[in-house]
Amino acid sequence: MAYAILLIVGVSLLVMPMSVPRFKSDAAYSVLNTEWNGLSSFGKLLYESGEITPVLVPYDSLGLGDMNGTLIVIGPDMDFSRGEIEQVREFLEGGGTVILADDFGTGNELLEGLGLPQRFSKKPVISLTYTKNYEFPVTREITDTTLSQGVDYVVMSRPAVILNAQSPTVYTSNASMLRGEYGAFPIMDVVSYGKGEIIIISDPDIFTNSLFPQNEPFLRNLIGSLPERAFYIDEAHHRDFNPYSAGTIVIRRAINKRLVFYYVLFIAALAFIIESGIFGLLLNRLFSFLDRFFREERKGLDEIISRLEESGLDGDKLKKILREIETGSKLGGGHGR
Description:
The protein is an alpha/beta fold. It has helices at about 1-15, 40-50, 60, 80-95, 105-115, 145-150, 210-225, 255-275, 280-310, 315-325; strands at about 20-25, 50-55, 70-75, 95-100, 120, 125, 140, 155, 160-165, 170, 175-180, 180-185, 185-195, 195-200, 230-235, 245-250.
């Protein structure tokens, strides 16, 4: 009966569903938001590529300046303190990478604090090349071959442009207009800063769940081009960030037939060894071996005492000292307390 219980419990643990806590947020550009304006799909991509850590506290509380990896700031709408900007500066100077994707949020505040000339335009660019309607322009103007590999186009949503760009790698299409000017405008700029670099992208919407299916090849190339695989994704600068528990996710495990076979084989072998008497025989041999071992040790000890007696020492006193050591009566043991 006991073997049947072991078999049932073990196999059940191998195949039963597993419940995992799930947390969500309805804040725009949050990695915990599974709706159209969230970044949960992008978060899964980061998880597949390395280690992802949501940043829920100010950078100076986190000690960002002493860390390595990639800080990802998407759609910030809360101010950056002087202490936080200084932490980002130290992070970049130490060799870290920052991805700043924004349009009309507080991204300019961070750029200004770092002493960079780049700025996000205050108005969106209008393009004649789009998908659903003019609010979703597309572009194929990617100058970096690493980023363009396998990418048909990038879909945006009312993007800003990067003013004063230094090393643009992605532009809008040539059929674009901003403040009465026509042409191709930079929407991604890569800037060296100390030992690190900051990647500026003027549309946070390319990371959202709604546009992720179209932009996944581009985003995979972007993540694959990064030097580090530790990702810190900023949630602290989302004004409406409010994580809450929404229950659990049930993961149904596929039956691993090989593992189940080995477990059943183990239970069968265990039952055979115990019921056939082999287990008892092994125990008897073990106890017999230990008994002979300690008898030989005692015999050897008696021989040593005999030799000491021949040299003039009192054998009875030596035996008494040994007994006191064994029982602990002179060392504070259980018999002498």
